[in-house]
Amino acid sequence: MTDGPADEAGPLLRVRGLTKHFPVRGGPVRAVDGLDFEVRAGETLGLVGESGCGKSTTGRLLVRLLEPTGGSIEFAGHDLTHAGRRHLRPLRGQLQIIFQDPYASLNPRHPVGRIIAMPLRVNRIDPPGGTRARVRELMERVGLNPEHHNRYPHEFSGGQRQRVGIARALATEPRLVVADEPVSALDVSIQAQVVNLLRRLHRDLGLALVLISHDLAVVRHLCQRVAVMYLGRIVEIGDRDDIYHRPQHPYTRALLAAVPHVGQFGPAGRLRLTGEAPTPLDPPSGCRFRTRCPRARERCAVEEPALVRRDGGGQATACHFPGPDPLPAEPVRAMA
Amino acid sequence: MDPYLRVTDLRVSFPTADGVLRAVEGVSFAVEGGRTLGVVGESGSGKSATALALLGLHDLRRATVTGQVTIGGRELVGRPETEIRRLRGRNVAMIFQDPLSALHPYHRVGRQIAEAYRVHHRGAGRGETRRRVIEMMDRVGIPQPDRRYDQYPHEFSGGMRQRVMIAMALVNDPALLIADEPTTALDVTVQAQILELLTDLRAEFRTAIVLITHDLGVVGQAADDVLVMYAGRIVEQGHVEQVLRTPQHPYTSGLLASVPSLRGDPEADLRPIPGSPPSLTELPTGCVFHPRCRHAGALGDRCRTEPPELRVVGTGGHRLACHLPTRERARRRAEDTTRAGVAR
Amino acid sequence: MSLSPAAGPVPAAIGSGGTAGPPRDRRGAGHSPGRLAWLRLRADRTALASGAALVLFLLVALAAPLIELTYGIGPRDQFQDRLDGFGLPLGRAGGVSGEHFFGLEPRLGRDIFIRLVYGLRTSLFVALAAAVLTSVIGVVLGTLAGYLGGWLDAVVTWITDLTLALPFLVVALVLPPMLTLRFYGQRDTVPAAFGVGVLIVIFAVFGWTGTARLIRGQVIALREREFVAAARASGAGPWHMLFRELLPNLRAPILVSFSLTVPQFVTGEAALSFIGVGLTEETPSFGRMIYQSLEYLQTDPAFVLFPGVVIFALVLAVNLFGDALRDALDPKSAG
């Protein structure tokens, strides 16, 4: 594996002002609108948010399946932002992606051994011991029987297919893996198997992982740091304990309150959000969350809050009125 | 009070090229008006096939349905299509996972709800129907219903579409509502709103609700009673708090232990159920769960050879299909808890 | 290996004692989708029957000279002595006998059976060659348009629309005489192969649009699938994309569209020959035979019957087999 120049010092992945607008009729869809974050080698970062918040687009930008409209992506010291295929090629092996749908993400016409070996073949990598041995080793590592390398995807269950997708992502010994909703298409009893597998791979291989998920509980079990996204923006980012135990942003707090908990009966907590997220075609002025925020005041409609660190820690919040304290005395309903 | 819906020994099977697929095998339960029964299970557990049987929606050229489904005192299984259709919509209504595919894209939303109303209220005039529809849209929390009456489905967000579906389902005051994964396609914050709406409406209209879901959290939030299904069978059944707080069946407790949650130690590995659900054309012998069960070896060959019956345990109608004696189960559970405690 | 079996994910249970067996079909290892289609095809009685008929037709066409040898009569041999004064064949049913299985043509007195055998050869050759050309053009253009998109897609779509707008019959009526005039002049005799070639080109020029549209649609759908994204994220180039990822998934639609175009061209050849612009008199062909037989519809109905039945059987067999193939390749479309 080739080592990048800024290997030891800086973060493995540095994202600055990342923006992706899709042109459609009626103006650009601001799917991702100015993201800043970093991932250090061996670190796990969760990107959480509801549908339309731009988390999946972010994942595809990171592995350069999409080209950013603005901002920059720096991976292992290389600028990937507008790199072409030739320039990206040597880095592809170090940066891989796992997809959500274990049915669509495997070529139905290829035996799984060939699917797993695809990144090696495409990058003309000849692993020590040969491709065949490497495929066997990968299959064992993800908990598949290596004898089944010549079987086809339709002969496997959903959970097993997802393991094939994971083995493929690991084939080139990547340093960073983006996992886009890796367990949400799986049955409940299978989800835990795959979550454990990802945890173990992170631990054993020292992988950096960007986990994209709508499921706050899954992210909590897999990620050391968490970024909460809303309408193309990060509203809060911080260490796991900070986000789950000391959330400062009203959206993070509402999101956590809305997750149904098995040990809790009857309707969910008091922090109920009304309405749904507006369209990224026409995001609200000022703070994008203000139309649903119980704390919104006039200032929120005018001024967009910056993502700022609180009390010198690792936690940053984009809110004019952050904090865990109860609702302010006179909440002003922002006009929609 | 007599239960509005009573299902006795329901069986649904489909002949396939690989043999007979037994989707539902001897399921019995009852739901009273004003109560919500949660039916939980993974894919292939038979929960959706059960739901379709409640509405007589199986294609009888391809499926074999036996047993009894009694709705409001009337027997459904084996009745002619015309008779069942009269029941559907009027007494029984259904909401689906994907509201977009259930709504006609080219018709105004208000008109679609109005049509559902008119089918069972032939005499209703235009004005009366419109009033009724707008009242219903308002009731399910669609803002400005008189304006949105004339909009098309694509102008509604996912959550609002699901509200439209609920309005359409409830416009005829059905005594039984079947909700098949109603919040699966929705975001968590919207899911919470829809579940609360269902709970409110149930109390207000005394509707009996069958809530089908794969999500134990949803059941905890919105159901009174719960059925846990596995491979077409009920493995555990009871009051929702009872079942989720003190699960008795190894599958239920395994499921609960494997779900990632917002509480507990995030650093500890999850405890998954090994293996995957069986193929419905090649079911295991004896207890269908035994190949994945940690306790299957404890009773010799019994779990492998003899299918357990669903029998009452404890109080309050808690039922269970497992050979393992209650005391032994309790001892093993206690052991597990201590082990998990030590591990932390 | 650092995976501890106790805490680790349970290794895939495929075939291992069948405990928590994964879905379906446990016969041996590695049933590729293509092999499954073959198994389904083999279990389908219509497919077997129509397939057997097709094989028989193909064998007859291939072995035409051999059949001529054993039959002892050539396609151009005339038996004027077996005709009556009006030029109609002697004997019952158009002169059917142990010597002439399907009787004789009126007027020229040629043997119908051997002309049908050679007609089948012409017909199948034209149809298969045209179908192969059609598929190649359609697949190449459809794949490029679907995969690369952009201006290329616009150009291909435009050419497709243009081709569809061309009146087939007018071109088919005008082109062959024009080409003949251009290459052979007024007086020269035109070799039979030239007529056949022109016919194939006309079919290919008009036939590729359907295949191209189908393939383009398939490629656009496949392009959005995540396995293509996975290859792209690994840095796969266009060659790998087209030949390793896309083409194996296009086999089914290509086969199906091929099987649908063949009968189209069989009837097309007959129709063109029927209106007199297809093949020349010397080349034995179904279309010409039926055209000639119409004159004798009243006096010698057997002449129209034999070619009619054979062409009907051929087209039916190809169509039935094509349908069976489609069902086998895509079980969801069945029933």
From TrEMBL, chain A:
Keyword set, alphabetical order: ATP-binding, Nucleotide-binding, Transport
SMART domains in the record: AAA
PROSITE patterns given in the database record: ABC_TRANSPORTER_1 (PS00211), ABC_TRANSPORTER_2 (PS50893)
Domain of life: Bacteria
Family matches, as InterPro entries: AAA+_ATPase, ABC_transp_ATP-bind, ABC_transporter-like_ATP-bd, ABC_transporter-like_CS, Oligopep_ABC_C, P-loop_NTPase
Example of a GO MF term: ATP binding
Residue segments, region Disordered: 313-336
ABC transporter domain ranges (all copies): 13-256
Pfam families noted in UniProt: ABC_tran, oligo_HPY
Amino-acid biosynthesis in keyword set: no
Family: Belongs to the ABC transporter superfamily.
Name of this protein: Dipeptide/oligopeptide/nickel ABC transporter ATP-binding protein
UniProtKB/TrEMBL annotation, chain B:
Xref: Pfam families: ABC_tran (PF00005), oligo_HPY (PF08352)
Compartment(s) of residence: Cell membrane
GO function terms (MF aspect): ATP binding
Membrane topology: Peripheral membrane protein
Ranges of residues in domain ABC transporter: 5-256
Superkingdom: Bacteria
Primary localisation category: membrane
Family from the record: Belongs to the ABC transporter superfamily.
PANTHER family found in the cross-reference section: DIPEPTIDE TRANSPORT ATP-BINDING PROTEIN DPPD, OLIGOPEPTIDE TRANSPORT ATP-BINDING PROTEIN APPD
Protein name: Dipeptide/oligopeptide/nickel ABC transporter ATP-binding protein
Naturally occurring in which organism (per UniProt): Micromonospora andamanensis
TrEMBL record, chain C:
Record-linked Pfam families: BPD_transp_1, OppC_N
Membrane association type: Multi-pass membrane protein
Keywords on record: Cell membrane, Membrane, Transmembrane, Transmembrane helix, Transport
Region Disordered, annotated ranges: 1-31
InterPro entries for the chain: BP-dependent_transpt_permease, MetI-like, MetI-like_sf, OppC_N
Transmembrane segment boundaries: 47-67, 124-149, 155-178, 190-209, 302-322
Subcellular location: Cell membrane
Boundaries of every ABC transmembrane type-1 domain copy: 120-322
Tree of life domain: Bacteria
Similarity comment: family membership: Belongs to the binding-protein-dependent transport system permease family.
Name used for this protein in its record: Peptide ABC transporter permease
Organism: Micromonospora andamanensis
